[in-house]
Structure formats: structure tokens, C-alpha cells
Amino acid sequence: MSEIKFPKDEKGVEYYDPAGPASREIIPNPGSKEALDQGCTCPVLDNCFGAGVCEDENGKTLFWFNQECPIHGHLLTDKVVKNGE
């Protein structure tokens, strides 16, 4: 599972902004309808339709990603977590 903290818009909805606050491009959450409309192939049900899987101890929303997703795949790093390490 990847741990990425998405910023929140004025309504409190999290989104991915690749260039920071100055960017006008907003990438919707993995598995959301908006992301699917843009070609997202990340899990829908596992990501609760874009709401995320759960939050970690720091309040970060966690998502499942598809490594080959054209919208979110580039967010994944080479870090692999095995057996809770």
C-alpha cells in the first residue's frame, strides 16, 4: 500500500496536485469516478470509490494503486513493504 498525503480543496476533498499549490491540474483520488473517467485503472472497491482505504496513525489517507495506471502509476516508488517491515 502506498502512503501519499493528498492536499484538500476548499470542500475538504483530497486530491493529488503534482506541482504543488501553484498547479491548476488536479488528479482525482484513485478509484474515484472522476479518476475512472480519465482512465484510472486503480482498484475502485478497495479504494472505497476514491475515499481511500483508511488513515494511518498520522491521519494520512491510504490508497491502493495499480502500478500501470496512467493517472496514478507514476506516484509509486521503488520502496516495497514486506511483512509489516
Task: Give an overview of the whole structure.
This protein is low in regular secondary structure and 85 residues long. It has one domain (1-76). Helix content is 6%, strand content 8%. The chain has 1 helix and 3 strands. The chain has one helix at residues 33-37; strands at residues 2-3, 54-55, 61-63. The chain has a 3-stranded antiparallel sheet with strand order 1-3-2, with no helix packed on it. A hairpin with a 5-residue loop joins β2 (54-55) and β3. It is globular. It starts with a strand and ends in a 22-residue tail after the last strand.
Characteristic key phrases:
85 residues; little secondary structure
- Helicity level, as a percent range? under 10%
Strand order of the largest sheet: 1-3-2
**Low-confidence regions:** none
Task: Tell me the domain tally.
Answer: 1
The radius of gyration over CA amounts to: 13 Å
Q: Give a count of the beta strands, DSSP E runs of length 2 or more.
A: 3
Structural class call reads: little secondary structure
Layout of strands and helices, then pairs:
Layout: E1 2-3, H1 33-37, E2 54-55, E3 61-63
Antiparallel strand pairs: 1-3, 2-3
Short description:
This protein has 85 residues and is low in regular secondary structure.
